[in-house]
């Protein structure tokens, strides 16, 4: 209410802001006077408050900010190394949210968990559990992420390949192995073509940045 508001302004001036000398605070302290609004308006001008007297919420917020700033200035050494309670709680929450920070790789539970994941994902066992964990990570990144699943679900249309038309260049002595080798060679050729395409795209992108005179690869012309 009005009385509490006036008492609050007087307390701020007396205890924190202290813009007036003690002997000059009489009009502001006289909260029951009919002239108090005029005294308060003058006080706002004297402390350079940018708000009007009618804007009480904004005025209170600004005066509190001024009080905090002055309080800090008077006790900078006391407050400069302080950490807000909210920040402390945030740090503790972050630490609790990172259980892998203090992970013990020799813990039997850790080893059992890695082994269970490897069995589930059909990954070859290894004596080093960290190696198995790395293999699990690679598999998850390449096969089980949302992007990988979406990419795998896309149907690719292709033409049937007649293996007998592709010469292997050597003979293993086993028809099944020969066929497998032909398939691997064709897959390797496909990967090389994809790599070459990416290399060409990279070259074009670099040329677009550094070419002078500018090169328009689409037109096969050089010019500005």
TrEMBL record:
It comes from the Eukaryota. It holds the Pfam family RLL. InterPro entries: RTRAF. Belongs to the RTRAF family. This is RNA transcription, translation and transport factor protein. The gene is Rtraf.
């Amino acid at each position: 209410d009005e009385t509490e508001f006036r008492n609050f302004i007087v307390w701020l001036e007396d205890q924190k802001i202290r813009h007036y000398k003690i002997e000059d605070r009489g009009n502001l302290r006289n909260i029951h006077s009919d002239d108090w609004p005029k005294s308060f308006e003058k006080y706002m001008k004297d402390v350079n408050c940018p708000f009007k007297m009618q804007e009480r919420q904004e005025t209170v917020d600004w005066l509190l900010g001024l009080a905090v700033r002055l309080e800090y200035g008077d006790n900078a050494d006391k407050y400069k190394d302080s950490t807000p309670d909210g920040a402390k709680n945030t740090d503790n929450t972050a630490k609790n949210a990172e259980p892998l920070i203090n992970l013990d790789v020799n813990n039997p539970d850790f080893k059992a968990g890695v082994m269970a994941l490897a069995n589930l994902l059909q990954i070859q066992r290894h004596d080093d559990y960290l190696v198995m964990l790395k293999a699990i990570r690679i598999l998850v990144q390449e096969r089980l992420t949302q992007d990988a699943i979406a990419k795998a679900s896309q149907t690719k249309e292709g033409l049937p390949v007649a293996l007998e038309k592709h010469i292997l260049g050597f003979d293993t002595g086993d028809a099944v192995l020969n066929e497998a080798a032909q398939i691997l060679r064709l897959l390797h050729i496909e990967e090389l073509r994809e790599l070459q395409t990416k290399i060409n795209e990279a070259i074009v992108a670099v040329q677009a940045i550094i070419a002078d005179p500018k090169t328009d690869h689409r037109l096969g012309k050089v010019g500005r």
